[in-house]
């Protein structure tokens, strides 16, 4: 009886892992295909699309792609992306932590109402608000600069606020009361006690914020018109020209390059990412 149960359990485990491995291969195949295609010449990419490995590995696409277009090198676009993603991440993480602390620890009028409004705003697709945003920022004279992309991040992001609220609620209120007895204000409690304890939540917010801003194409398309200010996500589109010819090899090469910062962030910060999400789910 025990032997049969053990055999069924082993068989189930083997089937589960084989199925998971095959599913992972299907999901990662487009990424691997893109990376391998970046080493092919443009004619070979679609002529031998079913063939994963190139006939001959070449770095020509990386050289051509890095030169960019119209006199603008991809070093400029990477710099722009780091500026946008870096400043936006700082603004989103800091402001969301402050607002989350207010919702979790401070009593004020209509708190539940404003929290519900924040949740509703978080659920709105960007496509609904992008036209009103464009009209407002255009009247402010911000269109054509980074301000419409970066400044809104300094007023909190719904998902990060909710994440911080759930995490802070899991911290015993006794710590706040003990700090007040020692003469701490709400500001010093937030800086000295809350912030160190919500480090996983802050890192999780930073990872998602940087990734979203780094990959953001729509806001750059809406608000930027000067190629000198294009981020990588928008600059990659310039390699595609349906009316003439598209340099797919250079596009895949630069797209592969653009994945490196995100890959390094997940590689080095995955411990905090898992801890932040798991701890928030348990404490929430």
From TrEMBL:
Keyword Membrane: yes
CDD domains: TM_PBP2
Spans through the membrane: 12-32, 82-101, 113-137, 149-168, 189-212, 248-267
Compartments reported by the entry: Cell membrane
Signal peptide range in chain numbering: none
PROSITE patterns reported in the protein's UniProt record: ABC_TM1, PROKAR_LIPOPROTEIN
InterPro entries linked: MetI-like (IPR000515), MetI-like_sf (IPR035906)
Annotated keywords: Cell membrane, Membrane, Sugar transport, Transmembrane, Transmembrane helix, Transport
Topology versus the membrane: Multi-pass membrane protein
Domain ABC transmembrane type-1: 78-269
One Pfam family named in its UniProt record: BPD_transp_1
Family under the similarity heading: Belongs to the binding-protein-dependent transport system permease family.
The protein's name in its UniProt record: Multiple sugar transport system permease protein
């Amino acid at each position: 009886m025990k032997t049969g149960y053990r055999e069924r359990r082993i068989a189930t485990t083997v089937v589960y892992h084989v199925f998971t491995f095959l599913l992972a291969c299907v999901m990662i195949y487009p990424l691997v295909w893109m990376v391998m295609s970046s080493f092919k010449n443009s004619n070979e990419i679609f002529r031998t699309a079913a063939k994963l490995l190139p006939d001959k590995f070449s770095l020509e696409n990386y050289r051509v792609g890095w030169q960019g277009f119209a006199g603008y090198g991809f070093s400029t676009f990477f710099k722009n992306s780091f500026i946008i993603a870096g400043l936006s991440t700082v603004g989103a993480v800091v402001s969301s932590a402050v607002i989350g602390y207010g919702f979790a620890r401070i009593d004020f009028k209509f708190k539940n109402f404003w929290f519900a409004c924040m949740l509703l705003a978080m659920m709105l697709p960007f496509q609904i608000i992008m036209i009103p945003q464009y009209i407002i920022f255009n009247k402010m004279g911000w269109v054509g600069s980074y301000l419409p992309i970066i400044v809104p991040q300094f007023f909190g992001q719904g998902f990060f606020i909710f994440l911080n609220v759930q995490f802070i609620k899991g911290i015993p209120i006794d710590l706040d009361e003990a700090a007040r007895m020692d003469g701490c204000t709400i500001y010093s409690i937030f800086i000295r006690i809350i912030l160190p304890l919500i480090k996983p939540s802050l890192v999780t917010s930073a990872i998602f914020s940087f990734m979203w801003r780094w990959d953001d194409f729509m806001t750059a398309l809406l608000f930027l018109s000067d190629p000198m200010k294009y981020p990588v996500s928008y600059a990659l589109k310039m390699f595609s020209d349906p009316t003439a010819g598209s340099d797919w090899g250079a596009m895949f090469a630069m797209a592969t390059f653009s994945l490196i910062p995100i890959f390094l962030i997940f590689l080095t910060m995955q411990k905090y990412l898992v801890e932040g999400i798991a701890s928030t789910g348990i404490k929430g």
